[in-house]
From TrEMBL:
<keyword id="KW-0732">Signal</keyword>
<dbReference type="InterPro" id="IPR006059">
    <property type="entry name" value="SBP"/>
</dbReference>
<dbReference type="Pfam" id="PF01547">
    <property type="entry name" value="SBP_bac_1"/>
</dbReference>
<comment type="similarity">
    <text>Belongs to the bacterial solute-binding protein 1 family.</text>
</comment>
<feature type="signal peptide">
    <location>
        <begin position="1"/>
        <end position="21"/>
    </location>
</feature>
<dbReference type="GO" id="GO:0042956">
    <property type="term" value="P:maltodextrin transmembrane transport"/>
</dbReference>
<dbReference type="GO" id="GO:1901982">
    <property type="term" value="F:maltose binding"/>
</dbReference>
<keyword id="KW-0813">Transport</keyword>
<dbReference type="GO" id="GO:0055052">
    <property type="term" value="C:ATP-binding cassette (ABC) transporter complex, substrate-binding subunit-containing"/>
</dbReference>
<protein>
    <submittedName>
        <fullName>Extracellular solute-binding protein</fullName>
    </submittedName>
</protein>
<dbReference type="GO" id="GO:0015768">
    <property type="term" value="P:maltose transport"/>
</dbReference>
Amino acid sequence: MRRTSAMAVATIAAAALTLTACGRNDAGSKATETGKDVSSGKATGTITVWAMGAEGEKLPALAKEFEAANPGAKVNVTAIPWDAAYQKFTTAITAGTTPDAAMVGTTWMGEFAGNDALDPTPPAIDKSAFFDGAQKTTEVNGTSFGVPWYVETRLVYYRTDLAKKAGYDKAPTDWDGLKSMAKAMQTKAGAKYGMGFQAGGVGSWQSIMPFGWSNDADLTKDSGKAYNFDSPEVLDAVKYYQSYFTDGISDKAAPATPTTEPDFKSGRVPMFVSGPWMMSAVEKVGVKKDQYDVMPIPAKTKSSSFVGGSDLVVFKKSKQRDTAWKFIQWLSDPKTQVKWYSSSTDLPAVKSAWQDPALTADTKLAVFGKQLETAQAPPSFPTWEQVVAGFDTEMEKVTKQGADPAAALKTVQQQADSIGTGQ
């Protein structure tokens, strides 16, 4: 998930917990499944595809090119608002009225596959073509259900002109360096807050976990069969994140979107963590291209970040399975991925597409591409959205009230154990 949709989806999921089974033991098979082959030849027949937000609005134009290459095929795209999508999908799955194919948020995959709604990826699709972290978002219990369509990851944005005033000519590469730079932005460059971190609350896990993953944290244990929030690696990351608030470097009263574009332009908050869409957003308010840059998430043991975006899936109820998969294969072609990027700015999930001049020409974009090589996704457990809501609540206590990180994570772990993985 990406842009404002990430927060919207998290909010929807938190509000829809009654729709999410608690600790299910019957959610799908634990055995690895093998997808069936897709027939050769051109696609035929009519398929219905659901897509959300801007993607739902732009996809019909691209689908016409698929139809031109497959004269016997017709693609009907239904655009769905993000705030209605989760419930529309869950209702359709229950009623057996799902579309043939759809764009699905990465954190929904575990639940939908657990409900036996998704068709396993056919062997003809080369899973190694995608960024590893993105490919893992399609996998549930060792089975791939769909493909990554587009991806996004998070980097640190910073004002290069103000960084020079703070004494930094190049970006730091480790945790201590990042914090020192953020503090210097206050003491030497006149910033109100050196770093625009989210002060807990809905979706804050997406800001905190990049530091956990950059400290070798694993959110699962027992061979991937259980949640693992109270590990030393996650604890170190939460303590580090909290220190920005206790030291006054980040704003305890910050909303879910802690840094606005005007804050970045004025220098009030000259650093924040966000995705690639913020490049055009900050430039739109007057930040010049040479006034800012992006850096990878600084490392404790390595540099890693959150990989989001959306996957493409085929539902088991589809009566046009072959055509649905052929459409997804076509959307996964590197040339199609680059063309889609040109019209939507969605970053390609296919690694080879990043060699195209349309992407290599932008040096900032190249940093996102590099981060995608190590970016990670959360566990694909059906109960992830429910469990992470508890994590977000506890993190708000940590950032705003100075609660003990170890006690907070112990609470999160107890809640996670009580809810279960849903597998």
